[in-house]
Specification:
It is built from five helices and no strands. The protein has two domains: about 110 residues; about 90 residues. Helix 4 packs antiparallel against helix 5. Helix content is about 85%, strand content about 0%. This is ATPase. Keywords: Coiled coil.
């Protein structure tokens, strides 16, 4: 992280000339002046002495070196300032990047927490669904077992119903035979009723003949003939086979016919008694 207090350079050596450099140059000039004066004095005293070499090039070199050192110091100072600025910019950029990274890390942490929450919620929902599916599967197993038992019971019931159906078919066959027999008996009853109607007509005719005979004077031959007819009708009535079914209408008709015949016989006997009582 950025720490400006430690990164700043408080003590940097200055490369510019100061008072000490000027005092040193002054002293050097004084020494040179004294040396020149001494040389003049010595020349006067000893003109044969050779003059020493000049120090101007040396001082020029020293000045050039001083200027070079001053330029180098200024350039170094500029580079240090530039590096300080770059360092500050780098620190600011690093701080900004650190803040952005912290924000991104916080966002990522929030997303991770939200994802974990969603995963937890999804896991709970998935567990609940699995539990529900397990319950449904158990219910289906129970239903399958119930259906299997019901199918077994249905098979037994089907066999029982098949037996009942066969028995009903046998009963239906017997009923068909009985119905056919009843139909035949009904046909015979109808024919018997027709014959009974004929007998009733004959009895009615005989009743008319008896009434006519009662009006006649000597009806013995006719009475004998009527008695024979009545006996024949009575024997036919008694010997006629009755239907197996107890039909109330047929029985009532037979009783009525029997009564009519009995009444005719009584009338015939009464008529004979009347005829016998005549002188």
């Amino acid at each position: 992280m950025r720490n400006d207090t430690l990164d700043e350079l408080d003590s940097l050596p200055s490369l510019t000339t100061d008072a000490r450099d000027h005092s040193f140059a002054g002293k050097a000039g004084l020494h040179e002046h004294d040396y020149a004066a001494d040389a003049r004095h010595s020349g006067r005293a000893a003109p044969a002495v050779v003059k020493s070499a000049s120090t101007g090039p040396l001082w020029a070199l020293v000045g050039a070196l001083v200027i070079a050192l001053g330029g180098l110091g200024w350039w170094s100072h500029q580079q240090i300032e530039l590096m300080s600025q770059q360092l500050v910019a780098t620190q600011e950029s690093f701080a900004r990047i650190s803040e952005e990274a912290a924000g991104r890390i916080q966002d990522i942490s929030g997303k991770v927490v939200a994802t974990e929450s969603n995963v937890t919620t999804g896991s709970e929902a998935l567990r609940l669904q699995v539990k529900q599916l397990g319950g449904k599967l158990a219910e289906l197993n129970r239903q399958m077992q119930s259906l299997t038992s019901q199918q077994g019971g249905s098979g037994k019931r089907f066999e029982q119903l098949s037996g009942d159906l066969k028995a009903q078919q046998e009963v239906a066959g017997k009923l068909d035979a009985k119905l056919q027999s009843l139909a035949n008996e009904q046909s015979a009853l109808k024919s018997a009723q027709g014959e009974q109607g004929k007998l009733a007509a004959q009895l009615k005719a005989l009743d008319g003949e008896i009434a006519a005979l009662q009006k006649q004077g000597n009806p013995n031959a006719a009475i004998d003939r009527l008695e024979q007819d009545l006996l024949v009708l009575r024997s036919e009535q008694d010997n006629r086979p009755a239907p197996s079914t107890n039909t109330a209408e047929f029985d009532a008709f037979r009783a009525q016919t029997t009564r009519n015949i009995s009444a005719l016989q009584a009338q015939m006997q009464n008529l004979q008694q009347q005829l016998s009582a005549r002188p």
